[in-house]
Amino acid sequence: MSLTIADVLALPGLDSLCLRAGAAGLENAVRWPYVAENSGIAEWVLGGELVFVTGINHPRDEANLLQLLEEACLRQVAGLVILTGPAYIQAIPQRLLDAAEAADMPLIEQPYSLKMVLVTQAIGSALIQSEQLGRSRHDVLERLLAGDYQSLDLLLHRAAQLGMPLAGHWQIVQLQLEGSDALFAQGEAAQMEAQLARQHDSITRRLRQLSAAVPVLGRAGQWTLLLPAADAVAALANREQLANWLKPLNLRLAPLKLFIGLSAAAHPPARLAQAQDEARQALAAARRFSERAGLCVYDELGVLKLLSGVRDRALLDQFLNDRLGPLLRHDLHHGPSLLPTLEAWFHENGNLVAAAQRLAVHRNTLTHRVQRIEALCGLRLDNSYDRLDIGIALMIWRLSA
């Protein structure tokens, strides 16, 4: 659980703090208070700080204040607090307010009469309490998802004490961000690291908005989210909401890509461990099957549920080799052509024109490849039993890719 700008403004004793601009950033998480003493802040902050600008040690004219705002946005600080009074900064320039509003950067006015020591003490104490509460809530949720408890009733009672109403029906969402290798290949490591951190923070903030009552579990580009879903209708609404967010998000993230897997609906607390396993299976399918556009629900897996239940991996590998082994060996030595062709043919339901367009090849080339596939595998694509075997083998191949 994190302390937000809105939480800071609501702390006892800080009533004279006034939000002047940037209300869209009220949910920004505050990592720590920082008092700016130099002309700039870019080299002194790491991101997430609530920066206090006094003007005591450095003159703060309009140009300098605008520079601080620009650096605050660049470094992803949580917000700016401008101390005003007759001695140093008499008033906040309107241009600064307008720029902060446009940048969605919270800009707060603090009168000098409110002692800084009281403000920093209140924020520091709240941060410690928030961290302790957050750890306790995460611990309870992780134990529930792992099925690691002796008494479910006691664990749910503890969750209620911590402000987590879990006694309902839920849908688990698993998310994974991939493509960091491609990102780091684009530029200097420090810049790419900062960009990756910003994307993580942006995704986390959005997920917290979706799950206000229950914390989001996340580390190293992976997140777990609980969404209320009492029935299939609610689950469909969850899916549509996530899909509408994911498509434009992945366009902006490139070369990074976010994948999402959702469990079935209506899981009570006693079945959340099962729901998490479902979400993980759906996430695996979303990652390995491009036609799912980065998102998959467990209910959509179909025959993949049966394949995931086969404990002896050697059986699946043997089936794959029996059906598609010659194609695997051909593409290994000559480059990928036959397996992508087979996938495209299946995806387009045997439509040679559409499959050729999908692969950006001539129809005659595709026809030749299909004939080559049939000759190598000893299977006929116009035979329903052979098509079933090939389809299952393609799924196993994708799951093991």
Automatic annotation (TrEMBL):
Q: Which domain of life does the UniProt lineage start with?
A: Bacteria
Which part of the chain is the CdaR GGDEF-like domain?
Answer: 153-284
The record's annotation in Pfam families points to: GGDEF_2 (PF17853), HTH_30 (PF13556), PucR (PF07905)
The chain positions of domain Purine catabolism PurC-like read 7-126
**Residue intervals passing through the bilayer:** none
Which parts of the sequence belong to the PucR C-terminal helix-turn-helix domain? 338-395
* Matching InterPro entries: CdaR-like_regulators, CdaR_GGDEF, PucR_C-HTH_dom, PucR_C-HTH_sf, PucR_dom
| Protein family membership | Belongs to the CdaR family.
What's the protein called, per UniProt? Answer: PucR family transcriptional regulator
Annotated organism of origin = Pseudomonas veronii
